[in-house]
Structures are given as structure tokens and as C-alpha cells.
Automatic annotation (TrEMBL):
This is Carboxymuconolactone decarboxylase family protein. SUPFAM superfamilies: AhpD-like. GO terms for molecular function: peroxiredoxin activity. Residues 50-132 form the Carboxymuconolactone decarboxylase-like domain. InterPro entries: AhpD-like, CMD-like. It holds the Pfam family CMD. It comes from Nocardia vermiculata.
Length: 193
């Protein structure tokens, strides 16, 4: 149940609505908007605090479309954060982006196998390990860093750490505010046994 109810789009300040439209265009690029749910509940919740929302989304925009990470690598990290933090909303939104980035359903599902690094490339194993280490210890372990440093340049290494941290913070916000998945996200929610 929502602790902060999302503002209806008709309640959004015009400049915030314009900002969100530009943000979505930047993130989706050539991807048709109807292939990715709009995230009305998240954006509506953020619309309650436009100054914070614009600052966060501007920073987050770098991670989504300006980082050195490939879309696939970024989504591998974000989905791992969502799995560790059990953030269904984050998982569903990024399962869609992972699909757009070319991951199979099996690969997407496998990301939630915590501690299992089999079946991934060397770089992907290191990304998963770095995510797990950052979430548990707040630091990438030396051996993992060494592997990442072979695979990625310094700017991308920074992007990795900031991506984990940002999506960890977002998972905290989504869960704490009680942001509920929209009906169009239902098929993408994680299946827990």
C-alpha cells in the first residue's frame, strides 16, 4: 500500500511534466514508448517533490543513457540490486529494459540466483560480484576490481559503483514509499517460491 500516494498526471506542475517527457525521450531513444510502461506510480510519487525529482532524474539519466556501461551490463547490475533488495517495482521496470537490451527470459531470471556466477561471461561475473560486494560490504573486493579494471576503463568503473549505489537508493525509496507496480508491470514481477 502506498505510503506516499502518487500524484495524478493532471496534478503535475507543467514544467515537471515537460521535464519528464524529455527524460523519457532521452532514456527510450528510438524504442517505441508503448513497449515500456510509463512508470506512472513512481513518477507520480516523485511529482510530489519536483525539485528532488528533477535533480534525481537528471543524475539517473546519466546512468541510463550517458554511462560507459552497455545497456546489457547496466541492466545486469540493476536487476541484481532489485533481486538483493527484493524491490519488485525496480525488478519489473528493468526486466523490460533488459529484454530490450537483448537478454533472454532465462538470463533475466538467472540474475536473481544470488551467489551464482555460472553461465556468465568474465565481465558479467565480475559485475554481479561487484554488485553483491557493494551491497554487502560497501566496497568492491580487490580481486573483483582487478577483473573489472581489465574489462572496463576508469570512467566505466566509476559508473559501475554509482549505478549500484543509485539503484540501491532507489530500491529503498520505492519500498519505503510503498510504490505499487502498475497493472502493465504485473507480467514482469519476480516470481518468488
Amino acid at each position: 500500500m502506498a505510503r506516499i500516494s502518487p500524484a495524478d498526471k493532471s496534478e503535475w506542475a507543467p514544467e515537471f511534466a515537460e521535464f519528464v517527457g524529455a527524460f523519457r525521450s532521452s532514456v527510450l531513444g528510438d524504442t517505441p514508448a508503448d513497449t515500456h510502461p510509463a512508470g506512472a506510480n513512481l513518477l507520480g510519487t516523485l511529482a510530489r517533490y519536483p525539485a528532488l525529482a528533477k535533480a534525481f532524474l537528471t543524475f539517473n539519466g546519466h546512468l541510463l543513457y550517458g554511462s560507459g556501461l552497455s545497456d546489457r551490463s547496466r541492466e545486469l547490475i540493476v536487476l541484481r540490486v532489485a533481486a538483493v533488495r527484493e524491490c519488485d517495482y525496480e525488478w519489473a521496470q528493468h526486466a523490460i529494459l533488459a529484454d530490450i537490451a537483448g537478454m533472454s527470459e532465462e538470463q533475466i531470471s538467472k540474475i536473481s540466483d544470488l551467489g551464482d556466477y555460472s553461465g556468465w561471461t568474465t565481465a558479467e561475473r565480475a559485475l554481479l560480484a561487484a554488485t553483491d560486494e557493494l551491497l554487502s560490504d560497501g566496497c568492491v573486493a580487490p580481486e573483483t576490481w582487478k577483473t573489472l579494471a581489465v574489462e572496463f576503463d576508469e570512467n566505466t568503473l566509476m559508473d559501475i559503483v554509482f549505478t549500484v549505489g543509485t539503484y540501491d537508493m532507489l530500491a529503498m525509496a520505492l519500498r519505503s514509499f510503498g510504490v505499487e507496480p502498475e497493472p502493465d508491470l504485473e507480467p514482469y514481477l519476480p516470481q518468488r517460491g
